[in-house]
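Researcher: We are triaging several targets before committing to wet-lab work. For this one, the compound of interest is guanosine-5'-diphosphate. I'm pasting the protein sequence and the ligand SMILES. What I need is the predicted three-dimensional arrangement of the protein with the ligand bound, expressed as C-alpha coordinates, so it can go straight into our comparison scripts without reformatting.
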Amino acid sequence: MKLNDRGLLIVISGPSGVGKGTVRKALFEMKNHDLIYSVSMTTRPPRPGEVDGVDYYFVTKEEFLKRISEGKFLEWAEFVGNYYGTPLDKVEEQLDLGKEVVLEIEVEGALQVRQKAKDAVFIFIVPPGKKALYDRLIKRGTDSPEMIKKRMEKADREFILAHKYDYIVVNDDVNNAADRIMAIIRAEHARTERTIHAYMKMLKED
Ligand SMILES: Nc1nc2c(ncn2[C@@H]2O[C@H](COP(=O)(O)OP(=O)(O)O)[C@@H](O)[C@H]2O)c(=O)[nH]1
Ligand SMILES: Nc1ncnc2c1ncn2[C@@H]1O[C@H](COP(=O)(O)OP(=O)(O)O)[C@@H](O)[C@H]1O
Protein backbone atom coordinates (compact mmCIF):
# COMPACT_ATOMS: atom_id res chain seq x y z
CA MET A 1 0.00 0.00 0.00
CA LYS A 2 1.36 3.38 -1.01
CA LEU A 3 0.85 6.28 1.38
CA ASN A 4 2.07 9.19 -0.69
CA ASP A 5 0.69 10.07 -4.12
CA ARG A 6 3.79 11.93 -5.19
CA GLY A 7 6.87 9.93 -6.09
CA LEU A 8 10.24 10.16 -4.39
CA LEU A 9 13.17 11.88 -6.08
CA ILE A 10 16.40 9.92 -5.59
CA VAL A 11 19.72 11.56 -6.42
CA ILE A 12 22.76 9.31 -6.85
CA SER A 13 26.27 10.73 -7.21
CA GLY A 14 29.79 9.46 -6.89
CA PRO A 15 33.13 9.81 -8.63
CA SER A 16 33.50 8.85 -12.26
CA GLY A 17 34.22 5.12 -12.55
CA VAL A 18 32.90 4.20 -9.08
CA GLY A 19 30.23 2.07 -10.73
CA LYS A 20 27.13 4.31 -10.64
CA GLY A 21 25.88 3.11 -14.01
CA THR A 22 26.56 -0.53 -13.19
CA VAL A 23 24.88 -0.34 -9.77
CA ARG A 24 21.93 1.55 -11.23
CA LYS A 25 21.38 -1.20 -13.80
CA ALA A 26 21.45 -3.82 -11.01
CA LEU A 27 18.95 -1.71 -9.05
CA PHE A 28 16.55 -1.52 -11.98
CA GLU A 29 16.80 -5.28 -12.52
CA MET A 30 15.47 -5.91 -8.99
CA LYS A 31 11.84 -6.99 -8.59
CA ASN A 32 8.90 -4.97 -7.26
CA HIS A 33 9.97 -1.41 -7.74
CA ASP A 34 8.47 1.69 -9.25
CA LEU A 35 11.72 3.32 -10.32
CA ILE A 36 12.13 5.46 -13.42
CA TYR A 37 15.56 6.58 -14.64
CA SER A 38 15.80 10.22 -15.66
CA VAL A 39 17.77 10.28 -18.92
CA SER A 40 20.10 13.29 -18.89
CA MET A 41 21.09 15.56 -21.72
CA THR A 42 24.77 16.00 -22.54
CA THR A 43 27.18 17.58 -25.01
CA ARG A 44 29.63 14.68 -24.46
CA PRO A 45 30.03 12.49 -27.56
CA PRO A 46 28.43 9.03 -27.26
CA ARG A 47 30.69 6.14 -26.18
CA PRO A 48 30.58 2.97 -28.28
CA GLY A 49 27.31 1.19 -27.53
CA GLU A 50 25.58 4.21 -26.00
CA VAL A 51 22.14 4.90 -27.43
CA ASP A 52 20.58 8.35 -27.87
CA GLY A 53 17.51 8.68 -25.64
CA VAL A 54 18.51 5.67 -23.52
CA ASP A 55 21.92 6.50 -22.02
CA TYR A 56 21.71 10.23 -22.69
CA TYR A 57 20.10 12.70 -25.05
CA PHE A 58 23.17 13.73 -27.03
CA VAL A 59 22.98 17.36 -28.18
CA THR A 60 25.26 20.12 -29.43
CA LYS A 61 26.59 22.83 -27.14
CA GLU A 62 24.35 25.40 -28.90
CA GLU A 63 21.25 23.30 -28.27
CA PHE A 64 22.25 22.80 -24.62
CA LEU A 65 22.86 26.51 -24.01
CA LYS A 66 19.50 27.34 -25.63
CA ARG A 67 17.75 24.96 -23.23
CA ILE A 68 19.53 26.54 -20.25
CA SER A 69 18.27 29.99 -21.31
CA GLU A 70 14.74 28.59 -21.66
CA GLY A 71 14.85 27.22 -18.08
CA LYS A 72 14.33 23.65 -19.24
CA PHE A 73 16.68 21.98 -16.75
CA LEU A 74 16.03 20.99 -13.14
CA GLU A 75 19.80 21.35 -12.77
CA TRP A 76 22.83 21.39 -15.02
CA ALA A 77 26.62 21.46 -14.67
CA GLU A 78 29.85 21.36 -16.61
CA PHE A 79 31.96 18.26 -15.98
CA VAL A 80 35.49 17.85 -17.36
CA GLY A 81 34.70 19.97 -20.41
CA ASN A 82 31.16 18.84 -21.24
CA TYR A 83 27.68 19.98 -20.20
CA TYR A 84 25.20 17.68 -18.45
CA GLY A 85 21.63 18.46 -17.37
CA THR A 86 18.37 16.95 -16.12
CA PRO A 87 15.31 17.77 -18.26
CA LEU A 88 12.77 19.30 -15.86
CA ASP A 89 9.46 18.41 -17.55
CA LYS A 90 10.01 14.64 -17.56
CA VAL A 91 11.01 14.53 -13.88
CA GLU A 92 7.94 16.50 -12.79
CA GLU A 93 5.65 14.38 -14.96
CA GLN A 94 6.90 11.11 -13.43
CA LEU A 95 6.85 12.38 -9.82
CA ASP A 96 3.23 13.48 -10.35
CA LEU A 97 2.44 9.94 -11.53
CA GLY A 98 3.83 8.66 -8.21
CA LYS A 99 6.99 7.16 -9.71
CA GLU A 100 10.35 7.12 -7.94
CA VAL A 101 12.66 9.10 -10.20
CA VAL A 102 16.37 8.30 -10.10
CA LEU A 103 18.90 10.98 -11.11
CA GLU A 104 22.50 9.88 -11.62
CA ILE A 105 24.34 13.21 -11.57
CA GLU A 106 27.54 14.86 -10.37
CA VAL A 107 27.79 16.82 -7.11
CA GLU A 108 27.37 20.39 -8.36
CA GLY A 109 24.04 19.50 -9.97
CA ALA A 110 23.00 17.46 -6.93
CA LEU A 111 23.51 20.49 -4.70
CA GLN A 112 21.25 22.52 -7.01
CA VAL A 113 18.56 19.85 -6.60
CA ARG A 114 19.06 20.00 -2.81
CA GLN A 115 17.97 23.67 -2.93
CA LYS A 116 14.91 22.99 -5.08
CA ALA A 117 13.56 19.64 -3.88
CA LYS A 118 13.62 19.53 -0.10
CA ASP A 119 12.26 16.01 0.26
CA ALA A 120 14.58 14.35 -2.27
CA VAL A 121 17.00 11.71 -0.97
CA PHE A 122 20.71 12.03 -1.70
CA ILE A 123 23.01 9.02 -1.98
CA PHE A 124 26.77 9.18 -2.57
CA ILE A 125 28.50 6.05 -3.87
CA VAL A 126 32.15 5.54 -2.90
CA PRO A 127 34.72 2.97 -4.08
CA PRO A 128 36.32 0.56 -1.59
CA GLY A 129 39.53 2.57 -2.14
CA LYS A 130 41.22 5.07 -4.45
CA LYS A 131 43.23 2.39 -6.24
CA ALA A 132 39.98 0.50 -6.96
CA LEU A 133 38.59 3.66 -8.57
CA TYR A 134 41.62 4.05 -10.81
CA ASP A 135 41.53 0.36 -11.75
CA ARG A 136 37.84 0.60 -12.68
CA LEU A 137 38.43 3.58 -14.95
CA ILE A 138 41.25 1.68 -16.66
CA LYS A 139 39.18 -1.51 -16.91
CA ARG A 140 36.22 0.32 -18.45
CA GLY A 141 38.54 1.45 -21.24
CA THR A 142 36.44 4.41 -22.38
CA ASP A 143 38.77 7.26 -21.40
CA SER A 144 42.20 8.43 -22.54
CA PRO A 145 44.99 8.54 -19.89
CA GLU A 146 44.57 12.32 -19.82
CA MET A 147 40.81 12.03 -19.23
CA ILE A 148 41.37 9.42 -16.50
CA LYS A 149 43.74 11.83 -14.77
CA LYS A 150 41.09 14.59 -14.97
CA ARG A 151 38.40 12.27 -13.61
CA MET A 152 40.65 11.18 -10.69
CA GLU A 153 41.42 14.82 -9.83
CA LYS A 154 37.75 15.64 -10.03
CA ALA A 155 37.03 12.67 -7.69
CA ASP A 156 39.26 14.25 -5.02
CA ARG A 157 37.16 17.43 -5.17
CA GLU A 158 33.91 15.43 -5.08
CA PHE A 159 34.82 13.32 -2.01
CA ILE A 160 35.02 16.50 0.05
CA LEU A 161 31.33 17.14 -0.64
CA ALA A 162 30.14 13.64 0.29
CA HIS A 163 29.05 14.85 3.75
CA LYS A 164 26.33 16.93 2.10
CA TYR A 165 24.54 13.71 1.14
CA ASP A 166 22.07 11.76 3.29
CA TYR A 167 23.69 8.36 2.72
CA ILE A 168 27.05 6.91 1.71
CA VAL A 169 27.03 3.53 -0.04
CA VAL A 170 30.26 1.61 -0.66
CA ASN A 171 30.32 -0.13 -4.03
CA ASP A 172 32.44 -3.12 -3.05
CA ASP A 173 30.12 -5.58 -4.75
CA VAL A 174 27.55 -4.44 -7.33
CA ASN A 175 24.59 -6.42 -5.98
CA ASN A 176 25.34 -5.50 -2.37
CA ALA A 177 25.46 -1.82 -3.31
CA ALA A 178 22.16 -2.10 -5.21
CA ASP A 179 20.56 -3.87 -2.19
CA ARG A 180 21.70 -1.09 0.12
CA ILE A 181 20.26 1.57 -2.18
CA MET A 182 16.93 -0.25 -2.38
CA ALA A 183 16.86 -0.49 1.44
CA ILE A 184 17.41 3.27 1.65
CA ILE A 185 14.59 3.97 -0.82
CA ARG A 186 12.18 1.74 1.10
CA ALA A 187 13.14 3.35 4.41
CA GLU A 188 12.67 6.84 2.97
CA HIS A 189 9.12 5.89 2.06
CA ALA A 190 8.33 5.31 5.69
CA ARG A 191 9.70 8.64 6.92
CA THR A 192 7.13 10.37 9.07
CA GLU A 193 7.29 13.83 7.56
CA ARG A 194 6.92 12.41 4.10
CA THR A 195 3.88 10.25 4.74
CA ILE A 196 1.93 11.67 7.66
CA HIS A 197 -0.16 14.21 5.71
CA ALA A 198 -1.00 11.69 3.04
CA TYR A 199 -1.97 9.16 5.71
CA MET A 200 -4.20 11.63 7.58
CA LYS A 201 -5.87 12.54 4.30
CA MET A 202 -6.52 8.89 3.58
CA LEU A 203 -8.04 8.35 7.05
CA LYS A 204 -10.42 11.28 6.51
CA GLU A 205 -11.57 9.85 3.20
CA ASP A 206 -11.88 6.34 4.66
N1 LIG B 1 24.78 17.63 -13.05
C1 LIG B 1 24.58 16.59 -13.85
N2 LIG B 1 25.51 15.62 -13.92
C2 LIG B 1 25.25 14.56 -14.71
C3 LIG B 1 24.06 14.43 -15.45
N3 LIG B 1 24.11 13.27 -16.15
C4 LIG B 1 25.28 12.69 -15.84
N4 LIG B 1 25.98 13.45 -14.98
C5 LIG B 1 27.26 13.19 -14.35
O1 LIG B 1 28.30 13.62 -15.20
C6 LIG B 1 29.48 12.88 -14.88
C7 LIG B 1 30.12 12.37 -16.15
O2 LIG B 1 29.30 11.42 -16.75
P1 LIG B 1 29.85 10.50 -17.92
O3 LIG B 1 30.54 11.34 -18.91
O4 LIG B 1 28.71 9.63 -18.41
O5 LIG B 1 30.99 9.65 -17.24
P2 LIG B 1 31.02 8.63 -16.03
O6 LIG B 1 30.98 9.36 -14.74
O7 LIG B 1 32.32 7.98 -16.23
O8 LIG B 1 29.84 7.72 -16.18
C8 LIG B 1 29.04 11.77 -13.92
O9 LIG B 1 29.37 12.15 -12.60
C9 LIG B 1 27.54 11.73 -14.11
O10 LIG B 1 26.87 11.26 -12.95
C10 LIG B 1 23.10 15.48 -15.34
O11 LIG B 1 22.03 15.46 -15.93
N5 LIG B 1 23.42 16.51 -14.53
N1 LIG C 1 31.58 -3.42 -7.50
C1 LIG C 1 32.40 -3.44 -8.57
N2 LIG C 1 33.50 -4.20 -8.59
C2 LIG C 1 34.34 -4.22 -9.64
N3 LIG C 1 34.16 -3.50 -10.77
C3 LIG C 1 33.07 -2.70 -10.83
C4 LIG C 1 32.14 -2.63 -9.74
N4 LIG C 1 31.15 -1.76 -10.10
C5 LIG C 1 31.48 -1.31 -11.33
N5 LIG C 1 32.61 -1.88 -11.79
C6 LIG C 1 33.29 -1.65 -13.09
O1 LIG C 1 33.88 -0.34 -13.00
C7 LIG C 1 33.82 0.31 -14.28
C8 LIG C 1 33.13 1.66 -14.12
O2 LIG C 1 31.74 1.47 -13.86
P1 LIG C 1 30.62 2.49 -14.37
O3 LIG C 1 29.30 1.89 -13.98
O4 LIG C 1 30.84 2.82 -15.80
O5 LIG C 1 30.96 3.77 -13.44
P2 LIG C 1 30.36 5.23 -13.40
O6 LIG C 1 28.99 5.18 -14.02
O7 LIG C 1 30.32 5.58 -11.94
O8 LIG C 1 31.32 6.10 -14.14
C9 LIG C 1 33.10 -0.64 -15.22
O9 LIG C 1 34.07 -1.33 -16.00
C10 LIG C 1 32.36 -1.59 -14.29
O10 LIG C 1 32.18 -2.86 -14.85
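Researcher: Any quick observations?
Model: The beta strands are 9-13, 35-37, 40-42, 56-58, 73-79, 82-87, 100-104, 121-126, 167-170.
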